[in-house]
Request: fold
Amino acid sequence: MSNCVSCRRTLPAGARFCPFCGAEQPVELLFNINPDSAQLEQDIAELYFPALKQRIADMLGPMEPQPFLERVYSSGFRDLVQRRTQQAAQQINTRHFNNAQLNAFLEDLLEDLLDFFLIRHCADLYDFSFPQAILAWQQYTPNREELYQMVLDYLDIESEEMPLYADLLRMSKEQMRNAGKFFLSPEREERIFVIGDLSVLGSCREGFALTDAALYWKAPLQTARRVLYTELDSIKREDDWLLINGHFFNAGLGLNLKIFLLLKKMKRVGRGA
Reply:
C-alpha cells in the first residue's frame, strides 16, 4: 500500500489519482530502464529473456523453458529482438516519455515480441497451434469498430468444438435468457462480441462472454465474475485452467490459451483508450 503524495491517506492499489483529494500520483517505472543510459539498447534487450521465462510460466505452466530459450538462437529470432530493441531505443531517445508512457511502451514491445516468437517459431514445442491471424494485430491498436474482428481472429471460432456464438441470433431465447440471468450483465452501451456456452446440456447457465469492455463468466458451482479489461491484474495458467485476477476460469485448454493472449491484448487496447 502507498500513501497520497498530497494528503498522505492510504491509496487503493494502482491508483493514478487520490480518491480523497484528487491529486495525481507519480508513476514508478516497472522496468529497470534508465532512458538516459548510454547503453539503453542493451538494457532493453536484456528485458526479453526474463519476460520470455515469465510468459512460459504464466501461459504454459510447468514447461521447461530451456527449449524455448535455445529456439531464440536456432530460429534466428534474436536478430529480430536486436533490431526491435534498437528501434525502441531510438524512439525512447526522441519521444521523451514520462514514466507511465515508458511503462506502456516497453510492455507493448515485449508482449508483441513474445506473441510473435511463441506463435511463429515454437508451435512444435507445445501441443497446440495458435491462429496465425493473431499476428496481423501486432504493433496495431484497433479502433472500437475493429475490435469485433480482432476477437474473432484471436479465438478462431470455426476451429472450436465448444459452442461459441459471435452471431447472437443463432442462440435460442432460453440460452440468451440464461446467459443474462446467470453471468452476463453488460452496460447499456457495451457491445457483446462472443458468448461461449460451458453448460453440459447447452442451456448457457454456465459460460462466458467477451464484450468491448469486459470478460464475464460463470463456471459450474462458482460465483459469476466480471473483469474489466482495464482492471486485469494477472492472467496465468494453473494446470489446465486459468486464474484471472485470481479467479478460476476454464473453457478448455486450447480456448484458454487463445483467451490468455486475447485478454492481454484487450488490456493494452483498454489502456490506450
